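PT: before anyone asks, these are the final sequences, not the draft ones from last week. 306 residues across everything. Please model them as a single complex and drop the result in this thread when it's through.
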Amino acid sequence: MNPEPFLQLDRVIHEKGRLAIMSMLAASPELSFTELRDTLGMTDGNLTTHIRTLQEAGYVSVTKSYQNRRPLTTCSLTVRGRKSFSEYVNLLEQIVRQNRAT
Amino acid sequence: METNQVSEHLQVIRTLMERSALYRRELAPVMLSTGTLGVAAAAIGLELHLESMGAFAGLWLCTAAVAVAGAFLIARRQAFKDHESFWSPPTRRVAHALLPPLLAGMCLGLTLAWVGLANPVILTFTWLLFYGCALHAAGFFIPRGMKLFGWVFVGLACTSLMFLAIVPLKVVVSAHWLMGFFFGVLHLACGAYLRLTARRNSAA
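LR: through. Structure below.
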């Protein structure tokens, strides 16, 4: 098996929790913090840590606002995040294709 | 990392992307309020003998407007309770899926009635047909059997319309009974089912 594509996988995305966050955000223009937390079954602290990592990598943007005088935190993928996620998925598909062919 | 692990990764991504696009608000309160309104409107129609085409259409269009407003208010309250935005992408998808069939059904029904091609019973089944199409379209973005519920309406409407066309039967039952059953009782049953199964799922 050629290990080359595995080495190219983005290490920031290639973590279970962060991959789940990126997958959800890739299918929706934006999602609230609570939507992500409830769907993924993560704790507030865990989700915050992963989002901060993704934010530092420039993959996710976080917007804080107020709705009905209640704080609302929404997350969305940046252009760079969308591109990196697409490349990550393409790479996974390439690995599957490559191994089916051999 | 093994190839089957990669495939599992891709499957997880696909599942999460699908789930992200789904509308997740609780539907039972919406169904129960719509059903209650349907039953109440049918009772008003029968009590006040609103049998003329204009009175029938007026009563039920007002009921539909109140039901839609009520559904939006319930969804809005749920969203605020969960600290989420109300007009979220899944909500927009559901609204966009519902709107064309509902608008088409309302316009077609009223046009048929206007030119004298429909009586209240035909109007009921025309609305039922398009309402079923609307539910089915929205069902692509809503979990929990909404597509099946849409099919029930479409099936009942098609069967009834064809039956009325083939068999020259004079319908003696008031159309308010039909509206009360389809838009009232069926919604109440669906709401009760959703509420009971939601409780069971959360208890499991």
